[in-house]
Prior knowledge:
Elements: E1 20-22, H1 40-48, H2 62-65, E2 69-75, E3 78-82, E4 86-91, E5 96-101, H3 104-111, H4 117-125, H5 132-150, E6 163-165, E7 179-184, H6 190-196, E8 199-204, E9 210-214
Parallel strand pairs: 1-5
Antiparallel strand pairs: 2-3, 2-7, 4-5, 6-8, 8-9
Domain DUF7919: 2-124
Organism: Anaerobium acetethylicum
Protein name: DUF7919 domain-containing protein
Amino acid sequence: MTYFSELSKYKYMWEKEINTFNVGWLEGEGFPRGIVPDGFIKNLWEYVKYPVFMTRGFHKNIELDGEKTRIIVNCQGYTIRLGNAEIRVVDSKNDKIYASPNLIMHYIVNHNYLPPNEFIDAVMLGPKPNSEKYGSVISSIICDNERKFRGSDYCLYCGSNKTYYGFSHRNDNDESDSKILITSYKETDTVNKLKENTLQDKICLECGKRFTVPY
Length: 215
């Protein structure tokens, strides 16, 4: 993880992302605390399910959680380990994009982090992943950068290269509420963690179908 001041211009994975601003990059710094509005976590989860710029390594906020921790969220039948991806939230009113680590979900639920009001409004009212508005933003900005970073993964159904990473893992149980687990691990678990993340789902922006690719 790293620290960026709230609402500063985004310059992390890529030098240029037009009109994109940082939210929730909290490493080593204090942050405002409070209560988010009802329904906010449910809406935020929709973005966490569709991460961008996934990496093999997992970042941690050692100051908050310690060195040997892993942050896992269970919600609506899905399990995602946080710390290896970002999310993008689109503010359709102001044509802004907010870039956050997916750990922001953990910071809010477990540490009462209170994001800026602009971000809260965008999460609550902005277009959600799989919508036409959100898809156009992802396609024009995120997908081009991901292809430069990792190469193209063409849709197995329609052949389009406009794809991005989707759900990390599907559970058998359908949980209606989000539950974040903080568990300890041993150094010997590293090999198992890599095995867990060797396959990832991708979503095609052209036909909307999911397919699995090596990661």
